[in-house]
Specification:
By secondary structure, this protein is an alpha/beta fold. The chain has a single domain, classed as Purple Acid Phosphatase, chain A, domain 2. It is 19% helix and 20% strand. A hairpin with a 5-residue loop joins β17 and β18. The longest helix has 15 residues. The two termini are 23 Å apart.
Length: 588
């Protein structure tokens, strides 16, 4: 795999839509609105002009992106400079005038790692967040408000910025839920299909989680006690907890949308396999864990979660701080993969369609969790399930699924290469393929047997990369899981056997972004994948007494930026953000 030093390659400074961008290139500077940075290996640079955009720029990160309002400490956010448009040419050389020749073939939005969270869940292990930052975030109570705000942004945009083509589809690339609970599944499906939801479990009238515990380890927003988050600048907000669990409404996506499995949709807290009785009992019980009494206790629990989940209940019983008795709730019960599929097949969840959101009508019974779908004429999506029913964070593919992927690619290709590298030509038209999974090529290395098919071999991301390089029609593999913006070039034996891997940040951790992907034929022997990041439609800053759903969605972004465990590298560099990715056309 060919990769870039994505965070240190180039530093760019830019202005908003009305300003001028000075572009640093290998050959000097090139001023212009929406100037483009040139990718490595090209000796000159071109400027990407604002006039090339046929669709909306306002509301995308080409216009603005969230930025801190001050130099240090806890930050309110503001509309910062937009990300520059970057041309990447590792896989094909761009030719001048292509923006005037190109024909848009497809346009879609990738949502990923939404992590709709039951923040009061009795199975959560927030106390390990100093070791695993994702175990507890200050913004965890606001995932539904943030997701609904992202739905609003996608609906308002409606079409892609470069081509102006209406969105053909939205694809969620996994970790739609966080704790693998029926309640979270209901909230996620309601947010995307439309309707009213109440993001609360347990006591219907009050909050029962860690954020009113008084423990120093957590942000307690309604208390003046100087907990560790307030010492980092987090505010006191009267009425916050009540507002966060109040009912909200979502318009639902007005574009057909498709679902992909993630490890948090498949495993207990994204790590442990389903069906371990001691852990399963925690979901619907009345014990809410507090905080370990020492770093040693926290480390023991973290190690058990990774290596021996069945030992967790016994360790919990030995914790120094007592657990809290809360209201049990049967809606916290974990769902099975078949129940996840069946919920998507519920006619009440169809929304803008399609019925089942990609899953076959009998998939709830068969458990088949992968499928193909038409994005646009001549452009096909392949939805993979890279999770392993045996649990663990990273993934792999079963042999049957890998063979199905090969068969699907073969059926849609007039030209491909067999396993010995020999070229095969057939009559017929070429199909362009976009593949979707939760895991990335370098996080598909958990090859333990699938408990449902223990004799079936498992295959790695590297093996999938090798397969995809045999098919010139493969344009991109689009995924999530890492919560980072990263884009890799996978160079094949010939230019037509190359493809891009597009990895997009989550909607739960900052920068809380989704990504538009446009497929265009430049009519010069090359294709362009035009990828543009978007944020939710929430304001960058609101007064802390604005406890409306939109105000809370704004705070969701602000708190994620100020999370004491935030990884600033998740934003990525210019070559991972708003990019044009060149490819050799399969028919060239």
């Amino acid at each position: 795999m060919t990769t870039l030093n994505r965070r240190k390659f180039l530093a760019a400074t830019g202005a908003g839509i009305g300003g001028t961008l000075a572009v640093t290139t290998l050959g000097g500077t090139a001023p212009g609105r929406f100037g483009g940075l040139w990718a490595p290996g090209v000796a000159s640079a071109e400027t990407v002009h604002a006039g090339m955009f046929a669709g909306p720029i306002a509301g995308t990160t080409l216009e603005h992106a969230a930025a801190p309002a001050g130099p240090a400490g806890y930050q309110r956010l503001r509309a910062g400079p937009g990300y520059p448009a970057v041309v990447r040419s590792e896989l094909a050389r761009p030719r001048s005038g292509r923006e005037d020749r190109r024909q848009a073939l497809a346009s879609l939005v990738q949502m990923t790692d939404m992590h709709v969270i039951d923040a009061q869940s009795t199975v959560r292990v927030e106390f390990v967040h100093p070791l695993i930052g994702s175990a507890s975030r200050p913004q965890d109570l606001l995932t539904t408000q943030g997701l609904t705000s992202l739905v609003g942004r996608i609906n308002a945009l409606g079409r892609a910025p470069h081509s102006g083509r209406k969105f053909d589809a939205v694809v969620t690339t996994g970790d739609n839920t966080d704790n693998h609970e029926h309640a979270e599944l209901d909230w996620y499906l309601t947010a995307l299909s439309g309707g009213r939801l109440t993001p609360n479990t347990g006591d219907p009238h009050r909050y029962e989680g860690t954020q009113d515990s008084g423990f120093d380890l957590y942000w307690n927003p309604e208390s003046t006690h100087p907990d560790s988050f307030k010492r980092a600048g987090f505010p006191v907000i009267d009425g916050y907890l009540t507002a966060a669990i109040a009912p909200i409404s979502s318009p639902g996506l007005n574009v057909p949308w498709y679902a992909v499995f993630g490890n948090h949709d498949d495993s207990v807290i994204g790590t442990a396999p389903s069906g371990i009785p001691p852990i399963t009992a925690l979901y619907t019980g009345d014990i809410k864990l507090g905080a370990p009494g020492s770093a040693e206790e926290a480390e023991l629990l973290q190690h058990a979660l990774r290596t021996d989940p069945a030992a967790v209940p016994g360790l919990i019983g030995e914790m120094t701080n007592p657990a809290r008795v809360v209201t049990p709730d049967s809606r916290r019960a974990p769902f099975t993969p078949r129940e996840f599929i069946a919920a998507h097949l519920d006619p009440a969840r169809t929304g803008s369609g399609p019925h089942g959101h990609g899953f076959a009508p009998d998939a709830g019974e068969t458990g088949t969790s992968y499928y193909s779908f038409d994005i646009a004429p001549g452009v096909v999506g392949i939805s993979m399930d890279s999770t392993n029913r045996g649990g663990f964070v990273d993934g792999s593919l079963g042999a049957a699924q890998l063979q199905w992927i090969e068969d699907t690619l073969t059926a849609g290709s007039s030209r491909y290469f067999d396993r010995d590298g020999r070229e095969v030509r057939r009559t017929g038209d070429d199909t362009l393929f976009l593949l979707f999974s939760h895991h990335t090529s370098d996080t598909m290395d958990t090859l333990i047997p699938d408990p449902e098919n223990p004799l079936e071999p498992r295959h790695s991301g590297g093996e999938l990369v090798a397969l995809l390089k045999r098919f010139p029609g493969v344009c991109a593999w689009i995924n999530g899981h890492t919560h980072d913006n990263r884009i890799f070039a996978h160079a094949g034996p010939t230019p037509q056997q190359s493809f891009w891997e597009i990895n997009t940040a989550s909607h739960v951790d900052f920068p809380q972004q989704a990504r538009i992907v446009e497929v265009a034929d430049n009519r010069d022997g090359t294709l362009s994948l035009l990828a543009t990041l978007i944020e939710s439609d929430a304001p960058y800053e609101v007064p802390y007494d604005d406890l409306s759903p939109m105000g809370l969605a704004s705070m969701y972004r602000e708190f994620s930026y100020n999370d004491v465990n935030r990884d600033p590298d998740r934003v990525g560099g210019p070559t991972d953000q708003n990019v044009e990715l060149l490819l050799a056309a399969p028919w060239a």
